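ARCHIVE CARD
CATEGORY: sequence design from structure
SOURCE FIELD: tokenized fold
FIELD CONTENT:
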């Protein structure tokens, strides 16, 4: 009788586990098992945002991209569709230079990359940003070449991820939440890796505070070694690469100036351009802050270029991607090729637009001053 009881209990437990695995696998809240062939398919914003470091390495294994866009969330709206059917946006929130390097290596190990587009910002060079984010798993990403030890570590990670995505409490809770979520609103992820959302004046206020904090200490040292290692990887693996400096809206440039950090910000851009042009002359580097239409737009513009002063809109993302491959588009002034010969004239134009922002948008400038007073008081 005892044996029958044990076997019956074990059988019920196995049936229950199998049922949970089938349920979570079919709902697939982390988008691991039901990835669509249509790269334009949309998916719930919140779950993928929370688990994107679990989702994206396996999405790249499925899609085998030959063209890659990578950077922090500031490149999230750059839909890679214009680059070709096998292009992918591998952005991650709070990404570090090391994680970018490993993600590029992962993608190139899956399929040799025909082109690579890297978006960088000042925050990536802060010393504290060189550490891995808490949910980053190095073993989830392939290496090239792949040793026996690397292969074993990768497949063990695949096993752990399969277990956690099918049988964990998080997976079950996320599956239930996904089924009960409202229909897709204006914030969503796409199967091509990009993320999209609406503009928000409330988000402008939040980002203004973040930029104020980022540029408060202009004496902090910036780390260029991980950046150099990243570019060295692209050279060693012969990946055609283009580099672009993510732009700030005029309101965020004003926040930098409010902190007396303007010279620091310009010096960082000079250092980046000099490093690339002197050590990696085969890599073109572009700036986007000399585009008056984007930098000077009001905070609540119709069909805006910026959503919140930091992230660009879907329309802007499509325009930027198109300019990567269209010389006529680049000639329009959205992307400015930078080198040691023209960097001073470019930065002079950016400084001119900073001064012009106050003149063109007096009401918005008054709002920025109010936000500044609130941050100082807080």
């Amino acid at each position: 009788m005892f044996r029958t009881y044990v076997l019956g209990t074990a059988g019920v437990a196995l049936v229950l586990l199998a049922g949970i695995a089938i349920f979570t696998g079919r709902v697939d809240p982390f988008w691991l098992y039901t990835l669509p062939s249509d790269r334009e398919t949309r998916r719930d914003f919140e779950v993928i945002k929370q688990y994107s470091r679990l989702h994206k390495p396996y999405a790249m294994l499925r899609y085998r991209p030959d063209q890659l866009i990578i950077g922090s969330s500031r490149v999230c709206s750059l839909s890679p569709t214009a680059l070709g059917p096998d292009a992918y946006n591998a952005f991650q929130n709070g990404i570090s230079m090391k994680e970018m390097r490993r993600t590029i290596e992962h993608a190139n190990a899956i399929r040799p990359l025909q082109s690579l587009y890297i978006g960088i910002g000042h925050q990536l060079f802060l010393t504290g940003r060189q550490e891995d984010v808490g949910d980053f798993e190095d073993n989830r990403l392939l290496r090239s070449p792949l040793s026996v030890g690397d292969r074993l570590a990768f497949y063990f990670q695949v096993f752990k991820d399969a277990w956690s995505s099918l049988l964990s409490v998080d997976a079950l809770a996320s599956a239930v939440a996904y089924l009960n979520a409202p229909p897709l609103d204006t914030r969503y992820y796409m199967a091509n890796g990009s993320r999209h959302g609406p503009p928000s004046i409330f988000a402008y206020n939040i980002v203004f505070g973040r930029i104020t904090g980022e540029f408060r200490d202009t004496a902090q040292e910036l780390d260029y070694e991980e950046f150099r290692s990243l570019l060295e990887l692209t050279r060693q693996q012969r990946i055609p690469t283009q580099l672009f400096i993510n732009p700030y809206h005029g309101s965020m440039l004003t926040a930098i100036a409010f902190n007396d950090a303007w010279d620091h910000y310009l010096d960082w851009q000079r250092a980046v351009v000099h490093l690339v042009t002197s050590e990696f002359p085969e890599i073109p580097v572009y700036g986007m802050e000399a585009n008056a239409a984007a930098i000077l737009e009001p905070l609540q513009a119709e069909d805006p270029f910026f959503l919140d002063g930091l992230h660009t809109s879907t329309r802007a993302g499509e325009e930027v991607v198109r300019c990567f491959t269209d010389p006529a588009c680049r000639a329009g002034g959205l992307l400015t090729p930078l080198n040691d010969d023209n960097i001073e004239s470019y930065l002079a134009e950016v400084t001119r637009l900073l001064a012009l922002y106050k003149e063109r948008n007096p009401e918005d400038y008054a709002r920025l001053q109010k936000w500044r007073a609130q941050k100082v008081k807080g």
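CARD ANNOTATION: The chain has one domain: 36-158+187-377. The radius of gyration is 23 Å.
SHELF: design records, drawer C
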